[in-house]
Structure formats: structure tokens, C-alpha cells
Here is the input.
Amino acid sequence: MPTEQLREVRICFIGDSFVNGTGDPECLGWTGRICVNANKKGYDITYYNLGIRRDTSTDIANRWLQEVSLRLPKEYDGRVVFSFGLNDTTAENGKTRVDFTKSMENARSILSEAKQLYPVLMVGPAPYAHQEDNERRQRTTDLSKQFALVCHELNVPYLDVFPILEQSSIWIDEARANDGAHPRAGGYAEFAEIVQNWQGWLNWFSNPIGIDR
Here is the structure.
């Protein structure tokens, strides 16, 4: 594919510590890796990592629009990838940090507004390494399934990475050996491989002169 046909693409990744790539000694995470791969294929990617550790869907609902607007001027081909949810399911003081219903409301609000402004993708929450915490595992699994339904209703492509990474010895073993939550380079490389082979991501780059908004 001739390089001269390809437009500059600016992508904001909004989310939590997994978006940030926390724990990766190469400081790339999965988001940096998929952008490196896209650049190697000839695409001109400007990459903005807007992942914040411990951010919940409520935190992201409060900040995403201002942060994205500053980075994606209307004259450029700007796109947004959201990935959040695991922090919503954290139990603190006898309750989850974000109520299940509120998580759904946040996701619907964020995605409904974002898709009116930019091409949008959503990647679901990744699994927590402590699989013996069955209650949290179930909460996160249920949340991811509901996110998938919201995305389907809004016509936003959704990738449920939870069941894939949950079976990944690299993701789980690295996280357990690190801080109990975040993997090292190998785990993020595996995450990146899943995303960059996802049809939702591939469709973004199937047309070298842009995409329909």
C-alpha cells in the first residue's frame, strides 16, 4: 500500500492503568505496541496515552471530553479507544467503587457522546491476576458482558478481552510475579496481539484515505 495515500491519524486511548501500561519496563503497554505496529505498516500515527491508574468509569466520564478535544482538532483524522471497568469492580469499605448500574450509565453516556464526535472503539476490562477472588471475577465478567450489550446498541465495536487473557499463562503469571495486577512486557505484548488482530481495529485501517464518521 503506497505510503503517500495514507493520512495522518491521531488516536487517543482513554482508560486506566492497563491503558497506561503500568508494569511494562518498556513503557509501551498494549496501546503503544499496536501503534508501533501500525506505524511499521506505513500509517502515520500520532498516539496519545490517556490512561490513569485507578481510574473508574466515573473518573473517565468526568475527564475524557476535555482531554480528547485538546488533542484531536477537527481538521485531523482523530479517533478514540476506550478501555475501562476493572477499577469499578474493586471492593472498598463493603461496596464496589462504582455501582454496577452507574457503570452502565457511565459507559452509555461516554460512548453516546463520543461516537457523535469521533470514530470510537471500546476494549473491555482485562482480568485481575488473583483468580481466587471469585466474586470480583464474576463482577468483572458481568460488567464486560453488559458493556458489550451497550456497545452493540450504540453500534460501537467492542472487544471482550477478559476470557482470552484469563486463559493466558503469560498475562496471569507475569501479573502475579509483579504486583498482583499488572503484567510485564510479555503480558502487554499478548494483549496487543489480540487487539491488533481484532476486526474492529483492522477496519480502521482498511481505507487508506480515511473512514466514514
Remarks:
- Confidence is low (pLDDT under 50) at residues 208-213.
